[in-house]
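We were asked to recover a plausible sequence for a given structure. The inputs and outputs are reproduced exactly as logged, with field labels preserved.

PROBLEM: sequence recovery
POSITIONS: 246
GIVEN STRUCTURE:
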């Protein structure tokens, strides 16, 4: 209902899709559904750490629209961004982060496949991150969870492909969304929001010419992966990073 998810929902609607928004941000979700139009969008509450709620969201989409063509597993949390050492790793925080970021993607794949396989058609997209490909600044828990998302996509792609269902990942680099800026606030509590924004848009940006990664870039990548233009792309991690991880 916000950030990349909001932009992606809007881009799918712009391309003729009907979407079911699933989030725990009820006010934002309902407002976005109203903005996109009742004929194109609806909202349902879904805590992605609860498999039953993911299953219910999938069933709602099928009941409302007759089928599910695309599932975008995008929800997630940062977890604790600062740890002093491996010895100080909080395994309870690790479990919460893995549940929201990795387990939810696996559950989303499971339940989307449940309704897509009988039709032998469908596309599942999971949002990973360049954090799952790199070491460095961000705490290990988030990195591990995003690496697990990429691993899940690769683990399921072969089997699902034989049933006509594609599953791919998108790994965005840093974008100055509220989600990303909140994470940086924990790492750099004395920096202003504008300073943190510059860290992302300038310090984490390998592209010249004033090009800055925006949420719409990830939204268009998702629509591409869902389209017939990508009909033979399966098990792929589409990295959208301006060659940062090259």
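RECOVERED SEQUENCE:
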């Amino acid at each position: 209902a916000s950030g990349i998810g909001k932009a992606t929902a809007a881009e799918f609607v712009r391309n003729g899709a009907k979407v079911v928004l699933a989030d725990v941000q009820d006010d934002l979700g309902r407002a976005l559904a109203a903005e996109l139009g009742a004929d194109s969008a609806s909202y349902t509450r879904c805590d992605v750490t609860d498999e039953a709620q993911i299953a219910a969201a999938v069933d709602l989409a099928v009941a409302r629209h007759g089928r599910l063509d695309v599932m975008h597993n995008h929800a997630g949390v940062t977890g604790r961004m600062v740890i002093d050492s491996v010895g100080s790793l909080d395994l309870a925080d690790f479990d919460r982060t893995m549940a929201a970021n990795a387990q939810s993607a696996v559950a989303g794949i499971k339940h989307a496949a449940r309704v897509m396989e009988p039709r032998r058609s469908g596309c599942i997209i999971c949002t990973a991150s360049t954090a799952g490909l790199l070491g460095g600044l961000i705490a290990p828990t988030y990195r591990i969870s995003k690496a697990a998302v990429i691993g899940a996509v690769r683990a399921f792609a072969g089997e699902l492909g034989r049933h006509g269902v594609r599953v791919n990942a998108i790994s965005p680099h840093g974008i100055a969304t509220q989600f990303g800026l909140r994470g940086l606030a924990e790492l750099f509590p004395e920096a202003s929001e504008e300073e943190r924004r510059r860290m992302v848009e300038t310090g984490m940006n390998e592209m010249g010419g004033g090009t800055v990664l925006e949420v719409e870039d990830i939204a268009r990548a998702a629509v591409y992966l869902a389209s017939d233009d990508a009909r033979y792309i399966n098990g792929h991690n589409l990295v959208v990073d301006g060659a940062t991880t090259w």
